[in-house]
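The protein record quoted in full:

***
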Amino acid sequence: MGEPSAARRNLETMAEHAESAAIATSDAANRARLMSEAQALRLRLAEGDFQVGDRIVLRIVGDSTLPDTLPVRAGLVLPLGQYGDVSLRGVLRQDLMQHLTTALGRYIREPQVQALTLVRVAVIGAVARPGYYHVAGDALMTDLVMLAGGPSSEGDLARISVRRNAGELIGDEAVRTAVASGRTVTDLGLRAGDEIVVGERKRRSVSSMLSVLSAISAVAIGLVAIGGS
């Protein structure tokens, strides 16, 4: 095996830092959060980024026999026709092109490969067109919301979260940080089936609105009383 890629080394470093920080902190809740982050990174390193349902837009220079877009099938394999199936287990999206170049090198001398990953995610909640969309790995979180028609009249872009398997994966505060720093779908480790949920604006409760109206009425009555004295 060759040297780990820059992307893999970066994830390994992030996992190590999270583990070290977890050991150093005395706050139990913070320790649990950091260890959860480290475990998620370790799992991503072991299993890779690809899921059944992803699509790969692929071009092999000099070969027009393959379709432009190929699905990732059961077993996390990419069917490459006459070149056989290529396993994507343990492969990061940033490493896909090199991985396919190496695999095709058994059949083609110095293959020239261009590949783009499309991830199937749901964009739901307070958006104009909720549904499933195939998005590029370099897409930003705001790109996903715009793909679904943007926020509805009740949508709040400050209240975006990510769910996986019915549980929250990334909270709205972390999403806001990701948006501000320009992190992509790949950076966030989003996978096929993940749900981007756009929340609604907070509404004042009826009781709080009545309290405000009562306070305004009291002030108005007071001013009338002062004016009449």
Observations:
- The longest helix spans residues 206-228.
